Amino acid sequence: MVFSVAVAGASGYAGGELLRLLAGHPEFEVRTVTAHSNAGQLLIDVQPSLRSLAHLTLVDTTPQNLSGHDVVFVALPHGKSGELTAHLPADTLVIDCGADHRLENPDDWAAFYGGDYFGAWSYGVPELLIGTGKQRDRLVGARRIAAPGCNASTVALALAPGIQAGVIEAQDLVAVLAVGPSGAGKSLKLPNLAAEILGSANPYAVGGTHRHIPEIVQSLRWAGSETNATISFTPVIVPMARGILATATARIVPGTSAAVVRAAWQSAYADEPFVHLLPEGHFPRTADVIGANTALIGLAVDVAAGRVVTITAIDNLVKGTAGAAIQSANIALGLTETLGLTLNGVAP
């Protein structure tokens, strides 16, 4: 069976990556692409790499244009998805790649985003530990799915196994992320953009202000943290087009051996197709995951500091956004989870 697909926000980075992956998906057929200011243009003029979709023209982002499809992917700025998706049919599978449906707590939304709160949907990170199970089980048959924030899912996947196994403490977590500018979207506003990025590293949202913090805390609570985690989270834009390299550390529960610590991550991801714990002493590069739906995790125990150190690499546009959305859609529709997605990065 072929499922008809519409993509809202098709002119942006996330929308373009969704279309690139959907074009190679054997069970999805993209029939409608929408945009705001680019409506009326040929898709190929806005996304020139998508040669196989050159026949499509961008139309206005309205419920009328999105209705009538089996699957709708929404890649809009925060605050824009919720007001649109409320008007889509209940039996349509809708995957929101924006932030509007990620947070369970309205107070978190008010504190970090503001504006109308649209309610939480099933969270689109299948591998995330939820108590003794995984989020994958909650996606089966779902018709409303919130794809994750790329930074949030990276840190959650990096630390959740230790929380769930009780081998790390949920307080005093620290995460520093090197992030490509595509993670901030095409609307990224920096003065003299090229000069700011090329040859420079630029921290942003410093001091507990980044909007993905409550999403990380929420995920770690689901994993089994008895109290809300506390995390110092600092993203840094670096001169690479795409990718995230996250260094996340946590205090080890006293008396826990390095072998027991590592075993927690091995157990969590042993059977996962897209999340891989690397052998001891090995650590990933962003170059290893570009274009792939994989998250690669390296782990070390800093005995002197009493902390576990995880290094996690993902492609923010694939595993961080579009790939996670398609992987979740596959599960919701009863398709093979890996369909249309690849483990292999693009070799440098």
Architecture overview:
By secondary structure, this protein is of the alpha/beta class. The chain has helices at residues 13-22, 43-46, 63-66, 81-85, 106-112, 136-139, 150-165, 193-197, 213-223, 258-269, 318-332; strands spanning 3-8, 28-35, 58-60, 71-74, 93-96, 122-123, 129-130, 133-134, 144-146, 173-179, 202-203, 231-237, 244-251, 275-277, 295-302, 307-314. The protein has 2 domains: 3-120, 3-Layer(aba) Sandwich (Rossmann fold), CATH 3.40.50.720; 151-314, 2-Layer Sandwich (Dihydrodipicolinate Reductase, domain 2), CATH 3.30.360. The strands form 3 sheets. A 7-stranded parallel β-sheet has the order 3-2-1-4-5-9-6, with helices on one face. Helix 2 links the parallel strand 2 and strand 3 (58-60). Helix 1 packs across helix 11 (318-332), helix 7 (150-165) runs parallel beside helix 9 and helix 7 (150-165) crosses helix 10 (258-269). The relative contact order is 0.15.
Helix content: 25-40%
Main sheet properties = 7 strands, parallel
Number of domains: 2
Q: Can you tell me the CATH superfamily of the largest domain?
A: Dihydrodipicolinate Reductase, domain 2
Task: Determine Rg (CA atoms, Å).
Answer: 19 Å
Going by CATH, the architecture of the largest domain would be: 2-Layer Sandwich
Task: Provide the β-strand percentage band.
Answer: 15-25%
Q: Report the span from N to C terminus.
A: 36 Å
H/I helix tally = 11
Could you name the CATH topology of the largest domain? Dihydrodipicolinate Reductase, domain 2
Shape label: globular
> How is the largest sheet built, in terms of strand order?
3-2-1-4-5-9-6
Beta strands, count = 16
Mean pLDDT across residues? 94
Main location: cytoplasm
Function: Catalyzes the NADPH-dependent reduction of N-acetyl-5-glutamyl phosphate to yield N-acetyl-L-glutamate 5-semialdehyde.
Active site: 150
Domain Semialdehyde dehydrogenase NAD-binding: 4-136
